[in-house]
Design goal:
Elements: H1 5-14, H2 21-42, H3 73-76, E1 83-84, E2 87-88
Antiparallel strand pairs: 1-2
Helix pairs in contact: 1-2
Length: 102
């Protein structure tokens, strides 16, 4: 399945990637090749093959849920691009230019 240049640009925008036209052309080829391969896998005859979640027999290997050391707000927000009090500032989803924190 060949992706168009505009489709790749849209995927890059959704992933918040700023790509040059040369990078978009490369991604167009690579993503199209991946989708072609997935298409080939879809053509395989899987009659009689049991679906499975993991190729190896595993059991729940969860650790005990015990409290650990927590970061302070200053430590957690040290590299935040935008900080509003003790919260991460994020772009608003609705029609406003002001960042919000929640």
């Amino acid at each position: 399945m060949a992706l168009t240049f505009d489709e790749v640009r849209k995927v890059a925008k959704l992933a918040r990637l700023e790509l040059s036209d040369a990078d978009l052309a490369t991604m167009q080829q690579q993503l199209s090749a991946i989708l072609d391969y997935v298409g080939q896998l879809g053509e395989l005859n899987t009659d009689g093959v049991e679906p499975l979640a993991h190729p190896l027999p595993v059991s729940n290997v969860f650790r005990d849920d015990e409290p650990g050391v927590c970061l302070t707000p200053d430590e957690a927000l040290a590299n935040a691009p935008l900080r509003l009090a003790d919260f991460f500032g994020v772009p608003a989803v609705f029609d406003t230019d002001e960042p919000v924190s929640h």
